[in-house]
């Protein structure tokens, strides 16, 4: 420190938290006049977040940072959060008809936290009207009537709206002024007793948001109840910290973790790991499998999936499968019908898969998985069964449909979202015969074989939904590649089934028909962690090449102008930068656009991607499409796998992003003629990531980066920990099961 110290007493708005300790913090902020300032606070229970306002008392000093820059710093031991009326109610008012920013500010400035009572009291209508438009009484009366009507009617009833206002007001008094956090809490707690339920569950926010804001809210709620217990060791805080740990693990796709890993994450949240786990064991919320601890909700889902698969295996067969030579003959007959000749490996795979009620076909790029599925489907149909085919992505479904069909037996493949919709409508019709399903819907029967391609993408919740709807007697075949990334969502059932091994047929031989493409060869090298030989790209339309990072814009714009292109990157910031740059490049100053969500302002012709599973709308995380038209507020999108464009539901708008570039997880299951891959120096870029990205291409792959970054990526491995455990068929008595199925 240098110079003399002077007294300071003013409001500071937090911009960036520089340090957070148990007994103090350092943050950068601004005064009301915009002057930047640094605050060093020594005290308890602050946990500032950007946007928070504090009344700070202390001494002004000069601080020299490590770069030699001098900044004004307040050394404080007295700092109190400032509750700013309107930080949450203001945005809510702005959304109401004819209110807007200016009128909302007038209401907040004049009435503050009394707004709840004001807008529920019709006797004060004139008071509100004079404030909204003092010089235009007729207009004021009209707007005020609309305001009170909106308050009374929006969300179904004035009581619910009043409850929301009361809830937001309560959050403001706790020092919560971030609209996003408040909206999350209201959506989760919505109801007439939302405040009461939040008080009874002070750490419910730990499963919705990051730990720091959740802990801040939780401690303030505990303090507001007047409990005398130490807030830092309160049981609710310990359980909240554990919920936060599960939230973090689930966000990475894990459904379980070692006890050591869980304890480490608890320590980072400032709670005693031993006490927390002991409390969880005492109240029955701790689930274990072997040496792993399981996330409770995910554990239930996994156990339900295991039960459904075992039930499928224990159900008497409805399609008789011949054994021995008769089964071999049935496969040869199917080869003749399809005009295909299987390799010995493929033939053995078909025979084995037909004997398994739940089975997995594992194979890398170019080994002929679609050929095996085509012959297997033909055998199944010849034996009296019916085949339904699905894939998570629309393009994968189209590719499967083309590859598995013959002129005599055309087979349609559907997205998983569409299959779930069909199954749900079939269930409704079974309970209500008067209900009419679309004629295009598939009939699922006890003789149905459901073939799911690109099954490695299927997360546990989606699989659980699918299995819960299948009729008794139906059978399931997964097909995929364990070398690819696990699903976007939680779990990795396909990978776990393949790893267990007793229900798997493996294809390893890359076929001659793939010899004219370098993609399977390069993909095989990458899968083994070996650095492939890559040439220099000079405009070739086929092959795999490596180009410098600086050529990214040139390469993608040249390829985008000449054909189908997919650009894949690991970091969200890179994806967003490419989307912004390419969308601006594609538009003129007169292009009509429509804002959908925080990351999507779209125009006709823009590629887009869905980011959330919305089965009711036929959408899933990773589904790609192109904006077909914009008419007023209506946006129509032509989704992969659809026969015509569909209007985008308003509720789904916030779940749409531009897709000039996408993450590798979002690309999984889709494909393109050409693929450009940004090989970034990031822990996200692993061997599995590179392998998955390369195998998205049918003809041309351009890796953008340097050889060292690629080598480092091939040395990294992705890990995902689950509690999914399906018993081996050998341990279950495979001989008995095989006998039951006529093998």
Give a short overview.
The chain is 41% helix and 21% strand. It is α/β, with parallel strands linked by helices. The strands form 6 sheets. The chain has a 6-stranded parallel beta sheet, with helices on both faces. Strands 1-2-3-5-4 form a 5-stranded mixed beta barrel.
Structural features, described:
This protein has 743 residues and is α/β, with parallel strands linked by helices. It folds into four domains: 2-81, Beta Barrel (OB fold (Dihydrolipoamide Acetyltransferase, E2P)), CATH 2.40.50.140; 89-291, no CATH class; 314-512, P-loop containing nucleotide triphosphate hydrolases (Rossmann fold, 3-Layer(aba) Sandwich), CATH 3.40.50.300; 519-705, Roll (SH3 type barrels), CATH 2.30.30.940. It has 28 helices and 26 strands. The strands form six sheets. A six-stranded parallel β-sheet has the order 11-10-12-13-9-14, with helices on both faces. A five-stranded mixed β-barrel has the order 1-2-3-5-4. A five-stranded parallel β-sheet has the order 15-26-25-16-24, with helices on both faces. Strand 1 (2-21) and strand 2 (24-30) form a beta hairpin. Helix 14 (324-338) crosses helix 16, helix 15 (344-354) crosses helix 16 and helix 21 (519-527) packs antiparallel against helix 25 (687-694). The longest helix has 19 residues, at 296-314. Residues 154-158 and 739-743 have low confidence and may be disordered.
């Amino acid at each position: 420190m240098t110079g003399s110290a002077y007294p300071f007493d003013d409001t500071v708005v937090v911009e960036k938290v520089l340090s957070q300790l148990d007994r103090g913090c350092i943050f950068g902020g601004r005064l009301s006049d915009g002057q930047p300032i640094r605050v060093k606070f020594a005290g308890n229970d602050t946990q500032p977040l950007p946007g928070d306002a504090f009344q700070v008392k202390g001494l002004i000093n000069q601080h020299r940072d490590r770069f030699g820059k001098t900044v004004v710093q307040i050394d404080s031991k007295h700092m109190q959060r400032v509750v700013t009326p309107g930080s949450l109610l203001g945005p809510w008012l702005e959304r109401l008809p004819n209110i807007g920013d200016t009128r909302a500010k007038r209401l907040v400035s004049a009435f503050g936290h009394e707004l709840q009572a004001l807008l529920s009291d019709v006797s004060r209508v004139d008071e509100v009207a004079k404030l909204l438009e003092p010089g235009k009484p007729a207009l004021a009366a009209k707007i005020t009537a609309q305001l009170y009507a909106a308050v009374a009617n929006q969300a179904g009833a004035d009581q619910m709206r009043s409850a929301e206002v009361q809830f937001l007001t309560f959050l403001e008094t706790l020092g919560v002024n971030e609209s996003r956090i408040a909206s999350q809490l209201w959506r989760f707690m919505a109801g007439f007793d939302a405040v009461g339920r939040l008080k009874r569950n002070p750490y419910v926010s730990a499963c919705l948001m990051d730990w720091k804001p959740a802990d801040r809210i939780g401690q303030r709620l505990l303090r507001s109840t007047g409990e005398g217990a130490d807030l830092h060791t309160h049981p609710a805080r310990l359980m909240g910290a554990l919920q936060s740990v599960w939230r973090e693990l689930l966000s990475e796709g894990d459904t379980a973790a070692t006890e050591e890993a869980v304890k480490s994450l608890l320590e980072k949240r400032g709670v005693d790991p031993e006490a927390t786990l002991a409390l969880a064991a005492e109240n029955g919320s701790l689930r274990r499998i072997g040496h792993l601890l399981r996330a409770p909700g995910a554990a239930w889902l996994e156990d339900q999936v295991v039960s459904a698969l075992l039930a499928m295996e224990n159900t008497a067969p409805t399609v008789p499968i011949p054994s021995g030579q008769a089964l071999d003959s049935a496969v040869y007959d199917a080869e003749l019908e399809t005009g295909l000749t299987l390799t010995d490996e493929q033939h053995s795979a078909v025979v084995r898969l037909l004997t398994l009620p739940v089975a997995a076909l594992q194979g890398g790029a170019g080994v002929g998985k679609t050929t095996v599925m085509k012959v297997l489907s033909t055998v199944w149909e010849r034996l009296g069964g019916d085949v339904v085919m699905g894939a998570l992505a629309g393009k994968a479904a189209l590719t499967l449909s083309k590859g598995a069909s013959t002129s005599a037996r055309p087979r349609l493949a559907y997205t998983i979202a569409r299959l779930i919709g069909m199954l749900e409508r079939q269930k409704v019709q079974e309970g209500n015969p008067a209900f009419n399903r679309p004629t295009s819907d598939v009939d699922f029967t006890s003789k149905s074989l459901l073939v799911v391609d690109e099954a490695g993408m299927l997360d546990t919740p989606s699989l659980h939904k699918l299995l819960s709807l299948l009729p008794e007697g139906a059978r399931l075949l997964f097909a995929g590649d364990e070398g690819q990334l696990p699903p976007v969502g939680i779990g990795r059932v396909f990978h776990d089934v393949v790893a267990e091994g007793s229900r798997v047929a493996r294809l390893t031989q890359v076929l001659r028909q793939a010899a004219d493409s370098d993609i399977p060869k390069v993909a095989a090298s990458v899968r083994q962690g070996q650095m492939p030989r890559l040439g220099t790209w000079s405009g070739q339309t086929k092959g795999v090449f490596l180009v410098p990072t600086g050529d990214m814009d040139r390469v993608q714009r040249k390829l985008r102008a000449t054909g189908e292109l997919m650009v894949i990157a690991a970091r969200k910031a890179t994806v967003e930068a490419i989307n912004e740059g390419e969308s601006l490049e594609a538009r003129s100053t007169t292009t009509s656009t429509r804002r959908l969500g925080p990351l999507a302002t779209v125009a006709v012709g823009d590629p887009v991607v869905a980011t959330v599973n919305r089965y009711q709308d036929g959408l899933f995380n990773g589904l790609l499409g192109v904006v077909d038209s914009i008419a007023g507020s209506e946006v129509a999108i032509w989704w992969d796998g659809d026969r015509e464009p569909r209007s985008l539901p308003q509720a789904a708008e916030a779940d749409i992003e531009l897709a000039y570039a996408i993450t590798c997880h979002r690309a999984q299951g889709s494909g393109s003629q050409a693929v450009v891959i940004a090989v970034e120096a990031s822990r996200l870029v692993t061997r599995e990531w590179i392998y998955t990205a390369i195998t998205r291409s049918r003809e041309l792959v351009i890796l953008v980066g340097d050889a060292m970054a690629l080598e480092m990526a091939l040395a990294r491995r992705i890990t995902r920990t689950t509690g999914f455990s399906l018993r081996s068929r050998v341990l279950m008595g495979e001989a008995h099961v095989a006998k039951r199925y006529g093998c």
